[in-house]
From TrEMBL:
Name by which UniProt lists this protein: Release factor glutamine methyltransferase N-terminal domain-containing protein
SUPFAM superfamilies noted in UniProt: S-adenosyl-L-methionine-dependent methyltransferases (SSF53335)
Organism: Chryseobacterium endophyticum
């Protein structure tokens, strides 16, 4: 299976759960994390055959998504406020609104930014 074929498979299998834009975003994230190609290289090498191990991991991810499991749990990580956090079924996944709330609280409290522009 090529990268392009996987993305078509992803969209076909998950079209009832996600919009086209969500499908594109999620398939790109999974290819990046599992195969190691950023979106630019995914487009450039869309005809590249996937390694069997990578293909199996990607197909397993699609199966997990079909059960309704959050993609962050499948990947085992999520990004929050510029940092990567471990995620499993026992962890609440931070939402974008939580980052907005944190920024509001920081501004309201007058806390100054420290290293790397973060708290």
């Amino acid at each position: 299976m090529t990268i392009s074929e996987f993305k078509t498979h992803f969209k076909k299998e998950l079209s009832l759960l996600y919009t086209d834009s969500e499908n594109g975003f999620l398939s790109s994230i999974f290819v990046e994390k599992i195969v190691g190609l950023n979106p630019f290289y995914q487009r450039r090498f869309s005809g590249q055959e996937l390694l069997l191990d990578d293909e199996q991991k990607l197909v397993a991810a699609v199966s997990a998504l079909k059960t309704g499991r959050p993609y962050q749990q499948i990947l085992g990580e999520t990004e929050f406020y510029g940092m990567t956090f471990f995620v499993n079924e026992h962890v609440l996944i931070p939402r974008p609104e939580t980052e907005e709330l944190l920024e509001f609280a920081i501004k309201k409290s007058g806390i100054m930014n420290c290293t790397a522009g973060k708290i």
